[in-house]
Amino acid sequence: MAVEAGYRKSKESWLVVLRSLIARGLNCPLLAIADGALGFWSALESLEEFKKTKRQRCWVYKIANALDECSKKLQPAIKSQLNEMMRAPDKETATKIKNNFSKAYEDKYPKMVNCLTKNWSELTNFFDFPAAHWRSIRTSNPIESSFAGVKSRLKSTKGAGSINSAMAMTFKLLKQCESYWLS
Fold this sequence. Notes:
It contains ten helices and two strands. The protein is mainly α.
C-alpha cells in the first residue's frame, strides 16, 4: 500500500505513510494491528481519519514479551497457557483464562502478568470480528514476515547504498510477496 523512507518507527515517519494513504483515498480502517510500536499508535491517535479504528495488539509480540519475564523452565507451560488464551473460542473465555492465569502467577511473576494485562482490551479486539479472520488479525506476523525478507536482503547487501535504492529494493521485494498474498 505504501513504501516511504523514514526514521525507524517514529511517529513522524508513520504520519507520512498514513497521510499518503489518506491522500490516495484510504477510508477509516476497522482495525489496525501492530506490536507496541509507540510511533505507530501515536500517529493513529493524531489523525482524525483513524479515530474510529480499533486497535489490535500483536499476540506474538505480547507472548514473547511476557515469556521474557518468567523463568526459562516455566516458559513452555506458560506459552501453552498464553496460546490457549489467544485461541479461545470467544472474548469471555479468553478473559476467564487470563484471570486464572493472573491469579496463578501474579505473586511470583508480577511483571509477566502486568505485561499481559495492561493492554488486554487491545489484545482482544480481534474477537469483535468474524472468526474466519481471527488467525490473520490477532498478530502482525503476516505483515512482519514480508518485511523479514526485506530486512534480510538489506542486511546481506550491507545496506542499499542510498534511500532511493533502499525504497526501490523494498518495493520490488514487497511486490514479490504480494503474489503469495493473492494466491
